[in-house]
Amino acid sequence: MRALCWKGVNELAVETVPDPTILNPSDAIVRVKLSSVCGSDLHLLDGYMPSMRSGDIIGHEFMGEVVAVGSGVRKLKIGDRVLVVSVIGCGACWYCRRGEWSLCDNTNPSDQAMDPLFGQTTAGIFGYSHLLGGYAGSHAEYIRVPFAEQGSFKIPDGIADQAALFLSDAVPTGFMAADLCGITPGDVVAVWGCGAVGLMAIRSAYLLGAERVIAIDRFPERLRLAEQREGAETLNYELFDVTEALKEMTGGRGPDACIDAVGMEAHGVGLAYTYDRIKQAARLESDRPIVLREAILACRKGGTVSVIGVYGGMVDKIPFGAAMNKGLTLRMGQQHGQKYVPQLLERVERGELDPSYLCTHPMSLEEAPRGYELFKTKSDGCLRAVFRPGA
Amino acid sequence: MSANTGEISTSVELTRRPRRLLARTEAVPAHAIRRRIANVGGAERWASVVAGPLALRWAARSRRTSVPTRLALFAVGTLLVERGVTGVCRLYRWLGVDSLRGVPHTGRRVLEEAHSDLVAASRRSVERTVTIMRPLAELHATLRNVLRWPMFVDAIESVEARDAGGAVLHLRGADGRRLTCVLALVQDQPDAELVWDVSDQGGRRLGRLIVALGPAAGARGTEVRLTAQVEGDGDGATMTVASWAAKLAGEAPEQQVRRILRRFKQLMETGEITTAAGPSGTRQSDPVLGRILRTRTDAPPRLPRSPGSSQTTAREED
After folding, report:
1. Cβ distance B57 to B22 under 8 Å?
2. What integer pLDDT is reported at residue B284 of this predicted model?
3. Is residue A362 very low, low, confident or very high in pLDDT (cuts 50, 70, 90)?
4. Between vectors from CA B8 to CA B226 and to CA A115, what angle results, nearest 5°?
5. b/e map B125-161, b = 16+ CB within 10 Å
6. pLDDT above 80: residue A29
7. I want to staple B293 with a disulfide (CB 3.0 to 4.6 A). Which of A130, A351, B25, B203 is the partner?
8. What digits encode the pLDDT tens for the residues A215-271?
9. What's the rounded Cα separation, in Å, for the pair A269 and B122?
10. Which residue among A25, A106, A107 places its CB closest to the CB of B311?
11. Predicted pLDDT at B227
12. Rounded CA gap, A309 and A293, in Å?
């Protein structure tokens, strides 16, 4: 089959690789119909996520058709149209049973690498470095899906492929970001980053009862989407001092909840941004926590900072004194997709959210390297490049 | 190391009855103890305090000395300062030398010697603990049946059961070396502890395997601690070199014990051994981290095939 492989920092190639096979009773093989780029892939591309190996197939947001199932799979059958959650959960461990699927005990075989780095080992993720399991990703014609009954969801007839695709990752991630905020009616929520996850977080915050949502980015077309499609007030951080602006926009209080939908490769302005660029380039810190700092400083006293943008390692100069003295609640994590997808499918069916507009650049798998280039440079208004490997 | 009374009494108790306590899942395992035991005596320590800065000064000032020599001097100077200030010499610890041996004990030294016994014990025993979301009795029954071990211990090539819970195991290491050992079940406390004596085919004792089980707090299932004890003392230097080499290969005893427990947990909780094996594009040369990470994670699992298990491998149908 054909697959998009990571060959080195900023180097991708479409290659012919062996087809996946069923290895365990709970496995399924899915023929990938649509597979999307994701902001977190850029950390792999830029070499900030450790443990990538040349030849790794990347991609983790996908939907397709079941073409084979293992002997232990009962709820899925060949021909089912499914979306598959990007995080792999076993469904049997203590964490999965609590709905904390991305903390699964059993799906990441790379514990020898992750334990020393993180203290414990979290769930495996498709196509997302050997630290997170080393699973082959979805930018391929076929993919092996372990624990298929837990991670695959049949798509109701009324939902198009293009909408279902984003329920694999962007929508549940954005929804979880808002869910972690513990929003109560009347809350003001600030969202940093208006990529697919940020836009979904804005919509989710409204769905969960927020009165106002303020979106922060620097790309006019993304801010326009946040305003026109999701109804957020917008703030361009290149034009305004974010903490000061947020304070004034919220009557001097600061937002009740702040969502970091950017993560480790945040951009910024001024001296602090230069400091982080230099430290990251010299490998003295792995992540640039520009948004995290701003969110902690901007958040109202006693508010919640929800971190859903991916961080990979060490950050520097976090105003923890502010977080402690202001009594902030910090909540974060990779998405627990299996917990959210059923209700999100219902919400899509009811028309409460429609993520299909996120797909701005559909293209063939052979064009994938160009798709990543467009996505990375955010040129041509690219929000998500979506490949059609099985087409 | 903070010397509060609570810690002293724990250490002394652990030293007095290490074997018994090591097996209990709630006891502090020996490998978690900080190995900062003073091993440099008074005059020698002062000499290091003086010599260290001199070496550093030499490294910094002497322009006629080559760069590698200056770097070596810098390293030596740093280590001398460290052993002078802390009383802990890394080289001595590595070589098993202790210039404080025989010096009359003071409070701190008593505590440190209590630790030193534990550290010595930890060289001969490896223990790791895991929590499994299954009832204790079920785990006990599975572990007691040696015929089921090949499902989660991938080094086992074959097992022959013997009377009274004993067995003959044919093992194969990652390096291809084969070993046959004889297990005799010497203790079987229902729902608490299993102990096997391990010997070679000639009857020479090799060590002991201890499984301790206990309920996990908060209805999280069962805590399982696996302890592997090896007979005899290894000397510091060779043990250290060997363990570094084994760690790089992913085959150090502690890694093996942890791996066995993780696979056992996966099998008991999900009914299968997790694997990330799958297709990939052409590999170029791997960075060092990639080499360490490659350890075993790519190997497809051997599916459970034991009496009573009917799980089979299905192949992809195109």
Report:
1. no
2. 63
3. very high
4. 40
5. bbbbbbbbbbebeebbebbeebebbbbbbbbbeebee
6. yes
7. A130
8. 999 999 999 999 999 999 999 999 999 999 999 999 999 999 999 999 988 898 888
9. 53
10. A25
11. 87
12. 13
Q: Nearest by CB to B279, from A18, A72, A97: name it.
A: A18
Q: Say how far apart CA A196 and CA B193 lie, in whole Å.
A: 53
Mutate to test the interface with A, among B257, B263, B269, B305 (most CBs of A within 10 A): B269
From residue A48, how far is each of A43, A282, A285, B273, B313 by CA, in Å? 5, 12, 10, 30, 37
Tokens of A17: 């690789």
Quick one: tokens of B78?
A: 């740093």
pLDDT in tens, A137-160: 999 999 999 999 999 999 999 999
Q: Which positions ≥6 away from B162 have C-beta within 8 Å?
A: B168, B182, B183, B184
User: Tokens at residue B81, please?
Assistant: 């300062």
B interface test, pick of A101, A103, A130 with most B CB neighbours within 10 Å: A130
The stretch A89-96 carries a mean pLDDT of 96
What is the DSSP secondary-structure string of B181-238? EEEEEEEEETTTEEEEEEEETTS-EEEEEEEEEEEPTTT--EEEEEEEEESSPPPHHH
Confidence of residue A36 (pLDDT cuts 50, 70, 90): very high
| Burial of B271 per CB tally in 10 Å (0-12, 13-18, 19+) | middle
pLDDT reading at A356 higher than 50:
yes
Classify burial at B114, counting beta carbons within 10 Å of its beta carbon; exposed 0-12, middle 13-18, buried 19 or more.
buried
Strand partners, A192: A216, A260
3-state secondary structure of A168: helix
The one-letter amino acid code at B269 reads: E
CA distance A318 to chain B (A): 28
Size of interface A-B (CB pairs under 8 A): 166
Is A136 in contact with B280 (Cβ distance < 8 A)? yes
Residue the block writes with tokens 């040129």 = A379
Among A162-166, A203-207, B14-18, B78-82, name the one with the lowest average pLDDT: B14-18
Nearest-CA distance from B94 to chain A in Å? 23
- Residue with the larger pLDDT of the pair A83 and B101: A83
Beta-sheet strands, E only, within chain A:
2-8, 11-16, 28-36, 56-57, 61-69, 81-84, 142-145, 152-154, 188-192, 212-217, 233-236, 257-260, 304-307, 329-332, 361-363, 385-387
Tokens describing residue B304: 């459970």
- The reported pLDDT for the residue numbered B316 is 35
- What's the distance, CA B133 to chain centroid? 24
Residue type, A389: P
Ranges of chain B with pLDDT below 70? 1-37, 96, 101-124, 174-175, 231-251, 284-318
Rounded Cα distance between B265 and B270, Å, is: 8
Which residues in chain A have Cβ-Cβ distances shorter than 8 Å to B301?
23-24
Q: How far apart are CA B282 and CA B276, in angstroms?
A: 17
Tokens, residue A335: 């998405």
Helix, strand, coil % over all residues of chain B, rounded to 5? 45, 20, 35
- Residue A237 amino acid letter: Y
* Residue tagged 């990703």 (tokens): A137
**Residue that is written with structure tokens 């790379």 in the block:** A110
